[in-house]
Amino acid sequence: MKPLFKVGDTVRIKPRKGCSDDYRFAYSDSMTNYAGKLAQITFVTPTNSSYHYREIDDGHNYTLNIDEGCYNWASSMLEPMMITPDISNPNTSNPSVTSESTERINIKLKPVEKIKFNFKN
Fold it and tell me: Can you give the pTM of this predicted structure?
């Protein structure tokens, strides 16, 4: 399976459901301190485990900037963030990353190269 997240993606850490062993990587008590916080993916590694866990994931190990790479995070522990324009300040072109919570951080996006489409009939 392809990874659900890529390096540079901003994610929100989900609260732990059930016990620590329901996840591909143990969701330890010290990891629960990060629940609800925003983090950025810094590294993605596929895993070799074929065991099916209660919390289904994409089979990849994610490293986050929030814990300086200390813990292994599974996709089942993370949720994607949506990038939306920051309409609170009309004088800025910086979008904001938002989640279901009221937490908001500002980020700058780099321009994307122009894409050329060639349509042939």
Answer: 0.63
